[in-house]
Amino acid sequence: MLTFLGIYVRGRDTAVYSGSVIEVFERIGISEEAVRSTLTRMATRDLLARHRRGRKVYLALTPRAVAVLEDGYRRIWETGAVNRDWNGSWTLVGFSLPDSRRSERHDLRSQLVWAGFGPLQNGLWIAAGEVDVVRIVEDLGLADAVTVLTAQATKPTESADLVGKAFDLPTIAARYQAFLSRWDVTAPAVEARDDLARQLLLHTDWLQLVRQDPHLPAEHLPAGWPAVRAEKVFRTLAARYDPAAAGIAAGLLDEIALPPAAAGS
Questions:
Q1: Are 173 and 114 in a shared domain?
Q2: Residue 254: which of 53, 3, 11, 32 has the closest Cα?
Q3: Is residue 143 part of a domain?
Q4: pLDDT tens string 93-126
Q5: In this protein, which residues make up the domain named Transcriptional repressor PaaX-like central Cas2-like (predicted)?
Q6: Is 171 found in the same domain as 137?
Q7: Which residues have CB under 8 Å from 221's CB, separation 6+?
Q8: From the centroid of its chain, how far is CA 201?
Q9: What is the rounded distance in angstroms from the CA atom of residue 164 to the CA atom of residue 159?
Q10: Closest by alpha carbon to 115, among 153, 146, 156?
Q11: C-beta of residue 97 within 8 angstroms of C-beta of residue 125
Q12: 121, 257 Cβ separation under 8 angstroms
């Protein structure tokens, strides 16, 4: 759903009819019940706003959804799968939360992984480059329990060693290899009904990959790192599917224009 909203609703002052969203997802084998449940859940979580026109309910993005989708767009099209612009710095996050605060500790770790951090040692997590963690710790109410620093590795510590210690490179590489096994073939996603279905499946697979990728420095990754080829495959297929997919979506989607003040609100 986030893939669909990111491609066909983000950046437009429109709301889309829920029934036409159901039609789109029917093309990739997702039931009407599942789509309605997802849309309801997203509205409850302040990701979608309802606009009624007669008997129809149209759905628009909220500011929270816009922020999520903009982050996804940056990760896909701007950040890329490999960090070629690393300046040699690391962001360090230190914390010590007792078992009585286990839930908060779990939430913090989950958010740090999402932001590209890996555990270097107990209570000390690192990420390549300068990463802003203010929103993470403030949203969790942990500003007083967390120490944040930026630093550079010095002898005897090597940045390559930090990458190997804090990040599970085999697991990350395996994710990209799985992507390539599905998409770097003569006829990808032959089970999909059309290019709209293939577009949504491709973008979803890729977004899941880059959101789990800690964006490590290219110079400290193993030779032949599969993310490089995977990104080329994604961009090639996206360019192939997008024109036909846009035409199909235009014929399916029922949209209404919203005043700028209403869009994203």
A1: no
A2: 53
A3: yes
A4: 999 888 888 899 999 999 899 889 999 998 999 9
A5: 84-163
A6: no
A7: 82, 163, 169, 227
A8: 14
A9: 9
A10: 146
A11: no
A12: no
| 156: preceding bond cis by omega (within 30 degrees) | yes
One domain, residues 176 and 219: yes
Predicted TM-score (pTM) above 0.85: yes
Helix/strand/coil for 25: helix
CATH of the domain at 118: 3.30.70
Measure the CA–CA gap between 226 and 29, rounded to whole angstroms: 30
Per-residue pLDDT tens over the stretch 9-23: 999 999 999 999 999
Task: Pull the structure tokens for residue 13.
Answer: 């002052």
Helix (H) or strand (E) holding 50: strand 48-53
139 and 188 inside one domain? no
Residue 147 falls inside a structural domain: yes
How many domains does the chain contain in total? 2
Residues 138 and 103 in one domain: yes
Domain residue limits at 133: 89-152
Q: How confident is the prediction for the chain on average, in pLDDT?
A: 92
Alpha helices in the chain (DSSP H): 2-8, 18-26, 32-44, 63-73, 102-114, 134-139, 159-166, 169-183, 195-212, 226-252
Q: Give the CA radius of gyration of the chain.
A: 21
Residues in Cβ contact with 185 at an 8 Å cutoff, skipping those fewer than 6 apart: none
Number of Cβ within 10 Å of residue 7's Cβ equals: 20
Residue 190 falls within a domain, yes or no?
yes
**What DSSP string runs through 98-155?**
-GGGHHHHHHHHHHHHHTT-EEEETTEEEEES----HHHHHHTT-GGGEEEEEEE--T
- The label of the residue with tokens 């950046």 reads 11
